[in-house]
Design a protein that fits this description.
The chain is mainly α. Among the domains are: 91 residues, no CATH class; 119 residues, no CATH class; 144 residues. 71% of the residues lie in helices and 0% in strands. It has 27 helices and no strands. It starts with 8 loop residues before the first helix and ends with a helix.
Amino acid sequence: MKQARGLSPLKLMHRHTSISPQGGRLLFCLALLLLIIDPDWPTLDCSLPLYRFRSGSDPHFSSPNGAESACTYKFAGDLFAQTLPDRNDPDAVEAGVYAKPQQILQAEPIAALEADLAAPDPDYVDIYQRSAALLNSYYSQFIADKRILDQRRFEVYDPTRLDANTVRLLALARDQQYAQRHFRAEWPYLRRLHTSLGRALEGMDESQHALAQYAEAFRYAALPPVPMEQEALIVLPENIATTPVEIPIPTESNEDKQLLRLIESRYMYMLRTFADPDRIEQAADANQRQAAQEFRQTLEQYNELTPRLEEAERRVYVVAAEIARGQGGSVADAEAERDNLRAQKRNLLAILERIRTEAFADYVQQKRTQLGDLAFRMSTLIHRLESEQKMAERREHRESFARGIGNQLGINRTVLRDFPGYQIYLEFAHKIDPRNLNVLDQLAVEYRTSGRLERAIAFQEKFIELSRAAGSDPADLAVHYLRLGAMYSDRKDYLPAAEAYQQYLRDVDASNPTIREQRNQIALTLADIHFERTGRLNQAQELYTEYLNNNADDANLNALEQDTDTGQRERIQALADRFRIFKNLAAIASRQRRTDIESERLQQARESFDTMEAAYTQFRTRETELQNEIRERKQNLLNTEDQDAQDAYYRLVRRELPALQ
């Protein structure tokens, strides 16, 4: 095996162990002394990390005479036993230098911090100080050692390694993935403290520092390895304790063995997270603590029973072979023992499955909700920082932002768009909690603003589906159907757009006067889509007639005529809509061969056009009068300093003329 990056054995020993350089030289001298005393002593491959010396069956160890590596293991065990404690040994861990979070921190102060954050008007400065004090009480034990480890780790400057690390981070950002190796452990105390500290910093308008604390909180929260939708792949029968499920053995089908591997892999994940001893001590829910303890005990029995069952399965065939050779034995007794072990394993599986589908499912859903909300908070902070950056660029480069981005309809050119960090964090939050409605809604809005209509439509439809499944009020979903119809219209996909607009008209509260005008405009838009795009002329005719009855009668037009200049513009627009409606109704009557109705609609269209033309002429006349009056007042201001004259001039320029245009 090659040496890592050309490091000497002493530097490699210094990097991979906690042995100081002086101690490494001493151990190396002892090894040379042993080789001088006994030339037949097995050689040592110093290019390997020293933690591998604990493995007595490592094939990289060799001896000059080709013997097994038992002597090497004895040498390593005797020489390094006290310098390399096994981290899997509970006694070694308990006797270690560093204390665990539950040995320093208490649950009551953390719960008090969370309660203060949930208050109506929290004192963020006080919460920040208390959270930082609790975290410092734990992290202060690592300060000196962390400095030493950092010096050892970055002893040699390696630009190649830094470049590779940069490429890895860019790949993670591009693929919108997270690296699981950066998650440290499932420690709820530290996760909750970092979250509280981040929320306090967020309340103090320290966005960057809050993001750093939220990232630390994620490092102490392991995520489930598979999405929720794939849970069905490993679900066993509900009555597994009574159903004679055949436990797979090596001679059975690959499907059974694959199912068992999936089940056991899920149990191993539960053992590392849900049933981890440190997490159990830090868990806030007493029922989950009890279920996790029961799971650990049951899984120990399951692991102890598995080799016994495999031996009993083989014993049946061994006894049958012995009987065939005339050596005696009882196949019935062997089968009875095997069936008894199978029944025990089914009972244990039933207990494990009950815990997995009840307590563990609640634990996973609770974690998904908490971490999804945390990722959503991070996305809002990222959006705020990116918005500030774009506004700074806009102030420095005014001309390039004034040109616009194109002639695509439905896009406001003054809106900030294309926030890559915001999109990545929203996708990350959606990956953690696919059922978070806030994340789905913001993803739909963001992708529509950035022009990625396919993804915007997908997230909008998912939001509507989950909201309906949750029993949301149809009136609350009306605006989302309106947004969905606008997205389909932007894509020129008019059939689903018409269905979305129709669903909006069914769900919206027509009795609400504040949205009555909006509903009438959507009905007119849907009528135009049916007339011009889908060919559903009967529905278009009904919607046009409904719009005329509700919005374009003579009383409304006369009321607009007596209103201000803004009302004049609305009156002209209403007359233009009325002219278009009558013209389209005449075309529908022509296709239906109703000449009498066609003539009537054409006459109404002509009257609407004449009225609109007269109103527009009056409007332009008023605009010309205002412009002439502005020029006169401007000329008069050159010879006077009267404040009233100046106020009258600026009132015309800044209020009346813009309101008319």
